[in-house]
Amino acid sequence: SRKANVVLETRQLAMKIFEDYTVSWYWIIIGLVIAMVASFIFIVLLRFLAGIMVWVMIVMVILVLGYGIFHCYMEYAKLKGEAGSDVSLKDLGFQTDLRVYLHLRQTWLAFMIILCIVEVVIILLLIFLRKRILIAIALIKEASRAVGHIMMSLLFPLCTFFLLCLCITYWASTAVFLSTSNEAVYKVFNETACQFSGQTCQPETFNTSNVTKLCPDAQCLFAFYGGETAYHKYLIVLQFFNVFMFFWLANFVIALGQVTLAGAFASYYWAFKKPDDMPAFPLFSAFGRALRYHTGSLAFGSLILAIVQVIRVTLEYLDHRLKAADNRFAKFLLSCLKCCFWCLEKFIKFLNRNAYIMIAVYGTNFCTSARNAFFLLMRNIIRVAVLDKVTDFLFFLGKLLIVGSVGILAFFFFTQRIKLVQDTAPPLNYYWVPILTVIVGSYLIAHGFFSVYGMCVDTLFLCFLEDLERNDGSAEKPYFMSPNLKKLLKKTNKGQPDA
After folding, report:
1. How confident is the model at residue 256, as a pLDDT?
2. Distance separating alpha carbons of residues 139 and 485, to the nearest angstrom
3. Helices 105-149 and 235-269, interaxial angle, to 10°?
C-alpha cells in the first residue's frame, strides 16, 4: 500500500506540473525569446564594452585585495596587547573551532602577507602583460564584428542540435532493439510456497502441465530476455560497439559544426577588404567545403576522442563494480586512471578544436593541422593564456547577467509581484516549474550563442598568429589583421592602403 501511495502521489505531481506547463507555455516561450535577444545584444555590445568590462574587473580585483590587506592590518593592530593574541599558530596546534584562529595576531599577519604577495603578483602581471591584454580585447571586439557580418552563424547551433538528436535517437533505438532481440524467458511466479517457483516455463503448455495441479496459484509470466546462442552470448559486445558508435557520431557532428564555423569566420579574417571580399554565403560555403573535402579528417579526429571517451566509460563501469570490493590498491589505481584519461580527453578536445580551425583555413589533413596548431599555440603560449582567461571572464559575466536577469524577471512575473501585469500571470500549482524551465532554457540559449562567439574568437586568434608569422606588411605579403590590431602592434602595410 505504501508503494501504491507513492505511485499515486507521483502521478498527481506529474499531472499538476503538466497543468502548469499547459497554462504557462506561452510565457515560457516569451522568456526564452527575451534570453535570445539579451544574448544577441550582449554579443553586439562586446564590440564597444569589452575593454571597459575587462579593465573595470581588473581594477575591482586590485581594490578588493587592497581592502583585504587594509582589513587584515586593522585586525592585526586591534589585537595588540590582548590576552592570548600573541600565541603562535605552532603552539596552538590544530583546533576544530576555526574561530579560535581569528583571535591570533599571527593569523591576520599571515593573511596580510598572502594578500600582499597576490596583489604584487597581479600588478606585475598587468605591467608586463598589458599589451597582450589589449590584444585580447581587440580580438574580442573583432569577433563581435565578425559575428555581426555572419548573423546566420548564431542559428547554426540549431543544426548541430538537430543532428545530435538524430544520433541519440539512433543509439537509443539500436540499444532497445539489441536488448529486446533475445528470446523471451518465462518463469513460474506464485504467492504461496511451491517447488516449481523460479523455474522456466512455456506459456503455451503451462495450463496443461503438472505445475498448475500442484500449485494452483502459480502463473507463467515473462521474466527477461535471454538466450544461449552465440549471438546472445556476445550481445554485450554489440551494446559496447553501439555506445562507441554513438560517441563517434556525436563527436563527428560537433566537429562538423566547429569546422563550419571556423571556415566562415576565417573567410572574414582573410578578406583584405572586410566585408567586401567575403563570399556571399560564408556559412553555407564553409559547410559545403567541410562535407566535400574534410569528412575524413573530421572522422579521424572524432575517432580518437571517441576511443578515449569509451575508455572513460569502461573505467566508470569497473569502478561501479568494484565499490563492494575491499581492494584499496585497485580503487587507487582506477582513480589514477580516471584522472589521467579525464585530462587526456580535455587535451584532445582542445587540440581537435584548434586542428579543425587549421583544417578550415588551409585544408590540410588532421595530423598536419593538429601538429601545426599545437606548435603555433606553444610559440604564443602567453597570448593563449591571456586570451583564454579574458574570454572566460566575459562569457561567465554574460551568462550570469542573462540567466540572472531573465530568471529574476520570470520569478517576479510568475509570483505576480509585477503590478503592471499582475492579472496577466497565469494561476499555477507550482510557480517554480516555469521559472526553472526559463532559467535552464536561458542558460542553454546563452551557452549556444557564446559557443559560436568562442569559436569565432579562437578562429580569429589562430588566423592572427598565422598572419603575424607568415606576412611582413610588404606588397607581396600584406597583413590581413584589422587596423586596430595593426595599431596596437605598430604594424603597417607598405604600399597598400588598409582595409
Report:
1. 95
2. 8
3. 70
